[in-house]
């Protein structure tokens, strides 16, 4: 673990370099390889006649941006959820937040014919909020606290509820099925930059809120009695942090569908490096989450050429051994 | 203690104590199942009066709907009953095994393993081989279910709490779901929709061949579950007490797990990933039958059969001319029920 602020700063720098490398790889590698020198040329002096410039600007760049934004959001949301629930297994996908957003989006797009991301994102927020409230309700113990085991089981129950609802709808409305299947599996491909821009205010707002909350978040690590003894109240912090989780998870689902386990793995890796101070954990999560999803998406292009593996499948396969390892540990606190 | 009947077989080496209430419930459920099957036989895209159905059943030569009844509706109904009974009892065994009311073949990934194996088989060319190769898909599904069960066991190791076992199963179920999605996305589009419908659990176009494939598993597995029901009662007392009473806990657990896997895997192989039957049926049965697995096994089997039969009937006639997978309706009831169960479950 990195101890001094200097070492932690260097660690963050390293994380940024990793994310940047993964980003460049995501731009350069694929069915058509593009030389790094040509990358810069494509952005500085675009040549309308060049095929590789066209691919880069319309296909690779939006894809890399979406992967980076979604990866960072999911990782930060996961870190916040693990702190809020004091549960090592908490993550937007494990606790059914993604499934809630997905189900509401499926309902909205098949019943109300909503297609634009700006409309869908509000629906996704509503779904994420519903799922979060349900899980919180199911996870409560008699005393009022959240039991780690119950929270995870609640997540499974909520996921089962929303996924089976969405499945039923998709089978009844078969025309919507094919366009949604890739999205259900979690994919960052085939979308333009224009669907990211309307959501940017949400991401920036969430980031600003995180920055404001970061000191109070550290209080949540302490025992409830200690916090009370220090004369602090955590209700408002919890509420705002929950809001950030819902905004980040809802936006991610609206952009890229069901991508699981990023929010589970990354916070644990970051905490192993930086300790539990949120001033370091949150930026670390954002950088490593972006790097991880970019790398997974780049790798997914090469596993079974010529077809691409949906990146959600990649992260689920990467994340399961990790989940099993955590589930076998004696204590479920992070 | 309420009044009961004791059945003794083979000089008392196998005996069952059945309370009067249990017998009455079982009888009523059997009657309900027979009535539902009769209703299901007479409803469809072409509704037929029950008298005509009876005539077609017993005097096929004189009836003009004999073909519909014998070749289309009857196999589908028989398959629904068998699948429901197998899945329900598999859920009952698993819940007794891990002493957790939330365990069921689909929650802990056994259905997921069977589905992944079967979808792989279909996508890798099994579908093109033709229907004669269908038993192979079933074998693949069984192998998948068995590997997942063994993986869960080996990952949980010694001294693991039942709750952890469920957690590990949940993790595996996620990976298996991802694997299945991967195969679906990579497969050609028509196969993908076919496989997706199959995953939800459908009895569409069931024929006698499927019934014949599942029947041996059900006919061996269900009586075996009844024979092992006393072991389940003992296991429910806790590992220490069960050991004290002279039960080989590990061996019994393995035997029960294998039986649950065989029942769930074979049902999934012929009807797809019908979820929640294994969760719903044992809980309803526990409400009706006071105690003891000897009464629970038949009640669960009958309730599971009733659930799948009615879900399939709904799927057949509610959205005519569309024929929707039964799994949609089972999940529609089962998923909220799962949420409700968790809400009530206090350790």
TrEMBL record, chain A:
Subcellular localization: Cell membrane
Write down the membrane topology: Multi-pass membrane protein
* Predominant location category: membrane
List UniProt keywords, sorted A-Z: Cell membrane, Membrane, Transmembrane, Transmembrane helix, Transport
List where the protein spans the membrane: 61-81, 93-114, 120-139, 151-172, 192-214, 239-266, 278-296, 308-327
The family classification in the record reads: Belongs to the binding-protein-dependent transport system permease family. FecCD subfamily.
Q: Which PANTHER family match?
A: FE(3+) DICITRATE TRANSPORT SYSTEM PERMEASE PROTEIN FECC-RELATED, FERRIC ENTEROBACTIN TRANSPORT SYSTEM PERMEASE PROTEIN
What protein is this chain from? Iron ABC transporter permease
- Source organism per UniProt: Billgrantia antri
TrEMBL record, chain B:
> Taking the first listed entry, what is the main subcellular location of this protein, grouped into a coarse class?
membrane
User: Which family does the entry's similarity section mention?
Assistant: Belongs to the binding-protein-dependent transport system permease family. FecCD subfamily.
Q: Which PANTHER family match?
A: FERRIC ENTEROBACTIN TRANSPORT SYSTEM PERMEASE PROTEIN, FERRIC ENTEROBACTIN TRANSPORT SYSTEM PERMEASE PROTEIN FEPG
Topology relative to the lipid bilayer, per the entry, is: Multi-pass membrane protein
The record lists the membrane-crossing segments as 77-95, 107-127, 133-153, 165-188, 254-281, 293-318, 324-342
Q: Where is the protein found, in the record's own terms?
A: Cell membrane
* Pfam families xrefs: FecCD
UniProt entry keywords in alphabetical sequence? Cell membrane, Membrane, Transmembrane, Transmembrane helix, Transport
Tell me what this protein is called: Iron ABC transporter permease
Q: Is rRNA-binding among the key words of this record?
A: no
């Amino acid at each position: 673990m990195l101890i001094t602020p200097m070492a932690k700063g260097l660690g963050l720098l390293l994380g940024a370099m990793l994310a940047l490398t993964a980003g460049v790889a995501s731009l350069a590698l694929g069915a058509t390889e593009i030389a790094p020198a040509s990358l810069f040329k494509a952005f500085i002096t675009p040549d309308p006649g060049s095929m590789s410039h066209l691919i880069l600007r319309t296909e690779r760049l939006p894809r890399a941006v979406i992967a980076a934004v979604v990866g960072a959001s999911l990782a930060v949301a996961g870190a916040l959820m693990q702190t809020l629930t004091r549960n090592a297994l908490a993550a937007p996908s494990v606790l059914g937040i993604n499934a809630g957003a997905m189900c509401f989006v499926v309902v909205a797009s098949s019943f109300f014919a909503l297609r634009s991301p700006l409309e869908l994102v509000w629906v996704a927020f509503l779904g994420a909020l519903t799922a979060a409230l349900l899980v919180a309700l199911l996870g409560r113990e008699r005393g009022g606290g959240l039991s780690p085991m119950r929270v995870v089981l609640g997540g499974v129950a909520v996921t089962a509820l929303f996924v089976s609802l969405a499945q039923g709808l998709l089978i009844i409305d078969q025309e919507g099925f094919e366009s949604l299947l890739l999205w259900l599996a979690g994919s960052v491909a085939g979308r333009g930059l224009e669907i990211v821009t309307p959501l940017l205010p949400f991401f920036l707002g969430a980031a600003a809120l995180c920055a404001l909350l970061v000191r109070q978040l550290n209080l949540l690590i302490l025992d409830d009695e200690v916090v009370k003894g220090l004369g602090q109240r955590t209700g408002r912090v919890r509420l705002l942090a929950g809001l950030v989780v819902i905004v980040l998870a809802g936006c991610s689902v609206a952009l890229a569908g069901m991508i699981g386990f990023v929010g589970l793995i990354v916070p644990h890796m970051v905490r192993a490096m930086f300790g539990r101070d949120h001033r370091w954990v949150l930026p670390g999560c954002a950088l490593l989450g972006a790097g991880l999803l970019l790398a997974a998406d780049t790798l997914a292009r090469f596993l079974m050429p010529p077809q691409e593996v949906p990146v959600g499948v990649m992260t689920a396969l990467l994340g399961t051994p990790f989940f099993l390892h955590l589930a076998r540990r004696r204590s479920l606190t992070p | 203690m309420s009044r009961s009947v004791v059945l003794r077989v083979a000089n008392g080496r196998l005996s069952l104590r059945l309370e009067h209430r249990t017998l009455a419930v079982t009888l009523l459920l059997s009657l309900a199942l027979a009535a539902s099957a009769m209703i299901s036989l007479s409803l469809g895209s072409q509704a037929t009066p029950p008298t005509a159905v009876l005539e077609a059943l017993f005097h096929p030569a004189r009836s003009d709907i004999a073909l519909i009844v014998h070749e289309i509706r009857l196999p589908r109904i028989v398959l629904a009953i068998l699948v429901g009974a197998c899945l329900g009892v598999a859920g009952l065994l698993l819940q007794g095994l891990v002493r957790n009311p939330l365990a069921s073949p689909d929650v802990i990934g056994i259905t997921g393993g069977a589905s992944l194996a079967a979808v792989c088989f279909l996508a890798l060319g099994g579908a093109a081989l033709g229907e004669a190769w269908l038993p192979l898909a079933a074998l693949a599904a069984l192998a998948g279910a068995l590997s997942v069960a063994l993986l869960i066991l080996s990952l949980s190791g010694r001294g693991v709490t039942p709750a952890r076992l469920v957690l590990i199963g949940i993790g595996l179920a996620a990976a298996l779901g991802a694997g299945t999605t991967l195969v679906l996305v990579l497969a050609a589009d028509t196969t993908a929709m076919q496989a997706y419908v199959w995953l939800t659990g459908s009895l569409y176009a069931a024929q006698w061949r499927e019934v014949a494939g599942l029947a041996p598993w059900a006919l061996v597995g269900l009586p075996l579950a009844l024979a092992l029901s006393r072991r389940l009662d003992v296991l429910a007392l806790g590992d220490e007490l069960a050991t004290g009473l002279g039960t080989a806990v590990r061996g019994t657990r393995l035997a029960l797990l294998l039986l649950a896997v065989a029942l769930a895997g074979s049902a999934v192989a012929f009807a797809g990933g019908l979820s929640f039957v294994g969760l719903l049926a044992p809980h309803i049965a526990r409400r009706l039958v006071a105690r003891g697995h000897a009464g629970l096994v038949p009640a669960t089997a009958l309730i599971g059969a009733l659930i799948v039969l009615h879900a399939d009937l709904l799927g057949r006639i509610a959205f005519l001319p569309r024929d929707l997978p039964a799994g949609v309706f089972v999940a529609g009831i089962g998923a909220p029920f799962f949420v409700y169960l968790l809400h009530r479950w206090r350790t």
